[in-house]
Amino acid sequence: MGTNALIQDDAVVFGLIMAVLGLVFYTSGSKHPFFVVFYRFVPVVLLCYFIPALFNTFGLVSGAESNLYYVASRYLLPTSLVLLTLSIDLKSILQLGPKALVMFLTGTFGIILGGPAALFLVSLVFPEVLGGMGADETWRGLATIAGSWIGGSANQTAMLEVFGASPALFSQMIAVDVIVANLWMAFLLYWAAKPGPIDRLLKADITAITNLKEKVAHYQKNNTKIPQLSDTMSILGLGFFITGLSHFFAGRLAPYIGDTYPWLKPYSLDSPFFWLVILATSGGLVLSFTRCRKLEGVGASRMGSVLLYVLVASIGLQMDLRAVLDNPLFFLIGITWMAFHIFFMLLVAYLIRAPFFYVAIGSQANVGGAASAPIVASAFHPALAPVGVLLAVLGYAVGTYGAYLCGVLLQLTFGS
User: Fold this and answer.
1) What angle do CA 16, 22, 26 make, to 5 degrees?
2) DSSP 3-state assignment of 291?
3) Across 113-185, where does the E strand assignment appear?
4) How would you label 142-161 residue by residue, b for 16+ Cβ within 10 Å and e otherwise?
5) What share of the chain is helix, strand, coil (3-state, %, to 5)?
6) What is the pLDDT of residues 378-410, one digit of tens each?
7) What is the DSSP string of 66-87?
8) Which of 141, 86, 51 is nearest to 304 (CA)?
9) pLDDT of 1
10) What are the backbone angles phi and psi of residue 206, rounded to the nearest 5°?
11) Angstrom distance (rounded) from CA 315 to CA 292
12) pLDDT tens digits for 86-114?
């Protein structure tokens, strides 16, 4: 790990974040009056995310140099997706209706239009933000953020190649991308625990979501039993086995598609991570039609949530609030851009009476991608995690096109 970090051993860092998770959940279950009041206002998932971020910000650990996020996203995330989808009622998911898709596309267009709008507004007050020549022109770097916020890292890399931002500019834009996106994710995690006030403001119809939650709760109530060691080992064995198979096929399918069908690359179909998420989720859905669904009664989704919280903490380790000081104007553009995206989504949600869940997932499927959309979805309810996955996969498909359109608009408006 980084030489500037106080703790440089990943094993120690992992022990530290597990201790944080254990302490947070222990205190959240405490009957002490202080903790009862504290957790009434501060969601558990937000602390699991924010405390590791503080460790990274103040140099206790180096999230950028740690391999924990890679391990969590490649091994724990797909396994958690398998376990969270084991008991899913696919028919009920489909009954959630088209509003989720509408909000996803709204988020996409909010990002496409928000980039040029944010750069224009900030340049009115700080015209120097338009400075830079050739590969250092600000708009080129913003196009890479569009790739990340609509699709993911693969789409971001594609925009870097297409529009040719300099390495120095690209590194600054990565900081903007990570900080702004993670601050928005923290907001979503906070309100996911209590969406009622926002749903009332939006005059939302939450019937379909409530019905799905009730079906899952009913199934869990009627099938829950005290798990034995054999049950827990069966859950983990099945989950990691499906993850292993997903890695096996993703590692062969992605390069085959990239070499044989290069025209599919804009859809990120040559990305092993894309196929890993798809195959793991599909595996869980297939198992939900078999006797394996009964594993939910001995804690399959609970075990999946454990793995997902480790991912939450490892994502938090990537956040460094000090990066805001590197180029404040770029962060002002990023915050303005995200504000435009949020306003656009809330406006459409109000017009179609979409629940806040759709706003959160539609946004995070764009901005956060497959690694974080299930986290936000499961913060509302574990049964809703597959919705985040499905929309995030759609983000991979449209990411390159949407980001390219945003880059062209930036170039036409502000390029030389």
Assistant:
1) 145
2) helix
3) none
4) bbbbbbbbbbbbbbbebbbe
5) 80, 0, 20
6) 888 877 777 787 777 777 667 778 888 998 898
7) -SHHHHIIIIIHHHHHHHHHTT
8) 86
9) 44
10) -105, 20
11) 30
12) 876 666 666 667 888 899 899 999 999 99
d(CA 197, CA 176): 30
CB-CB contact of 41 with 301 (8 Å): no
For the record, the structure tokens of 102 come out as: 């509408």
Task: Give dist(CA 101, CA 134) in Å, integer.
Answer: 38
Q: Are 332 and 266 in contact (CB under 8 A)?
A: no
Residue 302 corresponds to which tokens in the numbers above? 């609970």
Tally of residues, the chain: 416
Are the CB atoms for 296 and 235 separated by under 8 Å? no
CB-hemisphere CA count at 13 Å for 100?
Answer: 24
Give the span between the Cα atoms of 109 and 404, in whole angstroms: 12
Cα separation, 364 vs 372, in Å, equals 7
Q: Cα dist. 233→128, 227, 229, 281, 295 in Å?
A: 60, 10, 6, 20, 11
DSSP one-letter code for 278: H
Residue 266 to residue 397: CA distance in whole angstroms: 7
Report how far Cα 309 is from the mean position of its chain's Cα atoms: 13
Distance between CA atoms of 143 and 173, rounded to whole angstroms?
Answer: 9
- What pLDDT shows up at residue 2? 45
List CB contacts of 73: < 8 A, sequence separation 6 or more: 273, 311, 314, 371
Q: Residue 15 pLDDT more than 60?
A: yes
The tens digit of pLDDT for each residue in 295-337 reads 888 888 889 889 988 988 888 888 777 766 777 889 999 999 9
The DSSP string of 24-52 is HHHHHT---HHHHHHHHHS-HHHHHHHHH
Question: Could you give the C-alpha distances from 331 to 99, 180, 250, 253, in angstroms and in order?
Answer: 31, 8, 36, 38
